[in-house]
Amino acid sequence: MVLKVFFPSCCSSADSGILIGRWISEQNSAVILAVVHFPFIPVQVKQYLGELQRVTKVSVSVLGSWSNSKQEKEESLSEFLEDLGTIFSHEPWIQISREGDSKFWSCSTLQKHSNNRKEEEIILVYYDQRKVMLSHLHPPLDTADGRAEDASKLSAIFDTVARSRVLFMTDRYDEGPIKLTHWQSDGVEASIIVELMKQASVPACMLLTFLLSLVSGICRSRVLKFWPLSFLWSKLSTCEQLGHRLQHLQVISSNRKAQNQPQLMRKANIFVSLLIDVALGILLMSWLYRKNRIGHLADTLIPVADHVAEELQDLLQWLMGAPAGLKMNRALDQVLGRFFLYHIHLWISYIHLMSPFIEMILWYVGLSACLGLTVALCILSDIIALLTFHIYCFYVYGARLYCLKIYGLSSLWRLFRGKKWNVLRQRVDSCSYDLDQLFIGTLLFTILLFLLPTTALYYLVFTLLRLLVVIVQGLIHLLVDLIDSLPLYSLILRLCRSYRLAAGVKFRVLEQQDGKPLRLLMQINPLSYGAVVQTYRLPTYSFYPKDSWASLCKKLFLGELIYPWKHKGEKQD
Known about the structure:
Organism: Calyptomena viridis
Structural class: alpha/beta
Transmembrane segments: 200-219, 270-289, 335-354, 361-388, 394-416, 437-461, 467-492
GO biological process, one term: GPI anchor biosynthetic process
GO molecular function, one term: transferase activity
Protein name: PIGQ acetylglucosaminyltransferase
CATH architecture of the domain at 2-181: 3-Layer(aba) Sandwich
């Protein structure tokens, strides 16, 4: 069986000593973690390894010896390194040596009950200890048997290095009986800014938790459960977004430590998403309040609303005539046209009545941008919904009238065929009708059939207007969902430190020569950007239900309401 030795590249220039690491018998592999230099006392080394095993829960032991001499190897040193195998009694005893400046290394094994080196095939794999310890190996999405087995083998190596973090916290400046060489032997990596932020985060999280508990208590109070506050909280997208961000703040300020890597990445993604969202909102707020843009926006809003109302009036005048040369029922056409024109007149009067207060309303609405760009976008979506509420009313009137006629025609069509709809059994059954019922049914069917084109035309026009508003709101909510769900921290980590998100490894051949061990370099393959988004995507709230094209066409044909304004957001994972 091939013996695989994973050797840290940071120990290539270490002084001679013994190799400590973990032996994985299932894979016939040895993971070297550090080199202990001469001189040392074997009893102290065994005590140190026992304490290390108790803390890390990793079976760390002495695996062999390491010789790095720029001069000819002395025979006494060689015999001493071989004798260490009897002291620490590990089988097989691995001996790795590097002679001078030569690029060729020698690696052999020595059995416990034999003084001769056992000739077996050895593969020496170099790995970057820092990258392997800081990275998180993601299992492949394709869980085939072969790939799953390879992932389990790699995860054992990654897990060994990651759990040995305590071993890497000692450097050469520590006053102790044992001197080690590993990736932090020249000094432990640390940042004063990070340490200060850790110290400051504790009181900040306590204060944030207290404030969030107050806000949550107010939100759960009975006052908000009464109408119309309960209606506004459940129907407006701004309230949905505020509730969504409140949950994010509760996750961040929680004093519960992340149990695994996915939970830690989720907290980091939420924190960065909130940070960028608030930063973009503050930039938007600073842009709005500069050069009196709020006043210009308020002065533009009334003429735009008047222009939209005039266009709707012209559209209704066109429908009350002969639209596209179609012959309409003049009586019904005039009734519907005047009914909708009266609603437009009421809407224009309402807009002009509110015109003195629009600038003040926009001024206070602009302050909400400090809560985040997503909150400002949701407020914009709600403002569009309120400003186009008359279009929604037109659509509801037309859809209800059209739906009534469609269901009436279908019921009367069953009457002609001698059938009826069984409400209890939810099916169509046979039924016998007398002559009076058939006569009345024929008259009603004829009336509804000839009035259907006029109703269908109004329904079609107002449905297109409603879909136009829904598309604009859908684009706004698409941007909100993008900001809410995009794992920005993971993407930044993938861009700057791609090895932190490992999808697997690849091996590059360094040396292949007869009589010498095969030397490979293990390199980390990072996750692709699409896999990063798919793995760490945050859950969002979809304000509109997701209907298929078939379901949407069926609703349009039957006159059912599509994307009603009174709809509560649904959580999308």
